[in-house]
Each structure stands twice: as structure tokens, then as C-alpha cells.
Design brief:
Pfam families: Radical_SAM. This protein has eight helices and twelve strands. It is α/β, with parallel strands linked by helices. Helix 2 runs parallel beside helix 3, helix 3 packs parallel to helix 4 and helix 7 crosses helix 8. It binds iron/sulfur cluster.
């Protein structure tokens, strides 16, 4: 296959779905990253497989004009509840994030959601761009540096205090709906729960979303896996992740809700 053919075969729409999201309803996805998965994390459960470009350098990956064209080409479905920026990696790496949020709102007239791993929230330009999103779901899987390294595998310059400081700063400025999204991979000790609650009390999100891995992790990049909550896609090469029981996640949600008085939504196994 020639280089040109291979680029052509990789060309894809920056708009996908809608996919059914347990958190947001029918979600139309906008992927500001494109064909090469790019993220400042390389989470052990990432459904994109091993991240291809591990970086925290911002750039334009998909031109805004391309996203406009892809949105306009869509026969817009009335069943779409929200438009979500997610897809092939960390959306805040896209330098045109603010522009994309503005045109998504203008063209779809739907609430906009950004799913972020929160590693760039210390950057004032990122916080400014995110202000126009209706909902920001910020990932917080780890309450210790060890856990961050083990679960999220960040680029070398990113550590837990830096991430927490970014979320706190963003919370102080953001008037929209801030959710903390946490993937629970194994039962937490009492000490871990207490530490998590302390962080939540400092960060004061509008809600907490606890998740468990419900799908096997693909081992190699597959574009079809970018629908964050899609349930239909079954990859060939995959790694089965252990899952904690619904009883454990329910008890954890109750404990966090009682201690913080913040709504906790969760998805158990098979839910
Ligand atoms: S932050 Fe999201 S896109 Fe990045 S590696 Fe983790 S799960 Fe994948």
C-alpha cells in the first residue's frame, strides 16, 4: 500500500455516534484528536489500547473547518441529548478546543460535554476554553502518586499534586457543571476512601461518577473504540480487566455521598 493510500484509508470523520452514555444519554461525539491516539495518560483500562503518542504538548490535530464540515454533513438526529468532546485521546490537548466548543454549540444547539483527564487544567488557556462547556467531567482515579503511576501512567512531568491543583483552580473559576469521574479497578481500603473524600471535599464538584471497566481493553488502536460508552464494539485483540462487584461499588458510592453530601452516580457490572 502506498503512503497516500494508507493516509486515505485512515481518514475518518471527526464526528461519531451518537453513542448511549450511562452518564449523559444519547451523546454525539466530536473527536478533536483524530487517527493517532494522543494523550498525557496511558491508562491501563483505556479502550483505545496503548496510547500511540504520549504527550502533554498542545497542538491542532483536526482543523476546526474539518469539524464544521463533518458536523454539517450529519443528518442531525433529534435523539441527541448532548455533544461530547472525547474520542481518540485527551481533548484539552487540542489547541482549537474553545473554537470547537463554540461551533458545536452553534451548529447542534445541544449542551456540550468535555471528558478530560484533568492533566492540563493548570494551563490558563485550557481553563478559559473549558469555561464555555456546559459540563466538564474531570478524571480522578488516583489518590496517591503510586496509584497514579500504576493506573494512569502519566507523562513524566505530570504528578498528582499538579493535577489536584489544576482541578481546584478550575473549580474556583468554572460556573458550569463539574463532575469528577473515577474508575474503580479494585476494592478500596478505608484509608483510600478517607483520602478520596478529603479530596472531594476540597474540590467541591457538582457530582461524582464512579465507573468500573465493563469492556475488555483492546491491545492495539482501533478507531471504532472511541465511543466512550459504546457497548456494541467487540475487538479481536483484547485484555480482560478484573471487575469489582456491584455491591462494592454501591457501598462505596453510599459512603462517599454520606460524607460529602454530593450526588454520586455509578455504574456497576452489567448495569
Ligand atoms: S485519559 Fe482517557 S484517553 Fe487518555 S489514556 Fe486514559 S482513558 Fe485513554
Amino acid at each position: 500500500m502506498s503512503a497516500m493510500q494508507s493516509i486515505q484509508s485512515l481518514k475518518c470523520s471527526s464526528v461519531y455516534g451518537p453513542v448511549k452514555s450511562w452518564r449523559f444519554g444519547n451523546s454525539l461525539g466530536i473527536d478533536p484528536i483524530g487517527v493517532v491516539s494522543t494523550c498525557s495518560f496511558n491508562c491501563v483500562y483505556c479502550q483505545l489500547g496503548k496510547i500511540q503518542t504520549h504527550t502533554n504538548q498542545r497542538q491542532i490535530f483536526v482543523n476546526t473547518s474539518q469539524i464544521i464540515e463533518d458536523l454539517q454533513a450529519l443528518a442531525f438526529d433529534e435523539q441527541v441529548d448532548v455533544v461530547t468532546l472525547s474520542g481518540s485521546g485527551e481533548p484539552t490537548l487540542a489547541l482549537n478546543l474553545g473554537e470547537i466548543l463554540a461551533i458545536a454549540k452553534q451548529l447542534t444547539k445541544r449542551p456540550t460535554v468535555v471528558l478530560t483527564n484533568a492533566t492540563l487544567l493548570k494551563d490558563p488557556q485550557v481553563r478559559h476554553a473549558l469555561k464555555s462547556a456546559d459540563i466538564v467531567a474531570a478524571k480522578l482515579d488516583a489518590i496517591s502518586s503510586n496509584q497514579l503511576q500504576r493506573v494512569n501512567q502519566p507523562v513524566a512531568t505530570i504528578n498528582l499534586p499538579y493535577i489536584l491543583a489544576g482541578i481546584e483552580q478550575f473549580r474556583g473559576e468554572y460556573q458550569g457543571n463539574l463532575a469528577i469521574q473515577t474508575m474503580v479497578l479494585s476494592p478500596w481500603t478505608t484509608e483510600m476512601i478517607e483520602l478520596y473524600i478529603q479530596q472531594i471535599q476540597r474540590l467541591q464538584p457538582n457530582e461524582i461518577q464512579l465507573n468500573v471497566p465493563t469492556r475488555p481493553r483492546v491491545l492495539v488502536r482501533q478507531l471504532e473504540a472511541r465511543g466512550n460508552d459504546a457497548t456494541e464494539f467487540i475487538p479481536n485483540a483484547m485484555h480482560q480487566l478484573k471487575c469489582i462487584s456491584t455491591d462494592i461499588i454501591t457501598a462505596l458510592a453510599d459512603t462517599i455521598n454520606c460524607a460529602t453530601n454530593i450526588p454520586v452516580r455509578y455504574r456497576g457490572v452489567g448495569v
